[in-house]
Specification:
Layout: E1 7-8, H1 9-15, H2 22-30, E2 34-36, E3 39-41, E4 47-48, E5 53-58, E6 61-67, H3 77-80, E7 84-86, H4 95-99, H5 108-118
Antiparallel strand pairs: 1-4, 2-3, 2-5, 5-6, 6-7
Length: 122
């Protein structure tokens, strides 16, 4: 009987640097926000290993990854990237997000554009 190597789900998510702390990873799993092989799991101690697929939200992205290796420690980011194969769709930047500045005053050009919109005849 060949035993497949396995590790706790919350520990693997932390090793692979998807979450800053293992506690955060455990909370996401406990809240039911992680799927292992398309099945929602709620126990952080769920065993995962190479070949398993994970779907979860990290930041503002939905991540879909396939586990490539277990890893022995939480090392640098370059080492963590070797633990998984990213299957998520690439994020495209929106033009609007690049042009809007949050928390600052508008420039003179932007003020003129705002005034033109406000004072345009209906």
């Amino acid at each position: 009987m060949d035993k497949k190597p396995a590790i706790r789900l919350d520990k693997w998510l932390w090793h692979a640097r998807f979450f800053k702390t293992r506690t955060l990873a455990a909370k996401m799993v406990s809240a039911g926000k992680v799927k292992v092989n398309a099945v929602r799991v709620t126990k952080p101690a769920t065993a995962v290993g190479p070949g398993d697929g994970l779907t979860f939200v990290a930041g503002e992205r939905v991540r879909v990854v396939r586990i490539a290796a277990i890893g022995t420690r939480r090392g640098p980011a370059s080492e963590a990237q070797q633990l998984y194969l990213d299957l998520s769709t690439p994020v495209e930047k929106t033009a609007r997000a690049d042009t809007i500045r949050v928390g600052s005053r508008p420039t003179k050009k932007e003020r003129r554009a705002i005034d033109a919109i406000r004072h345009a005849p209906p």
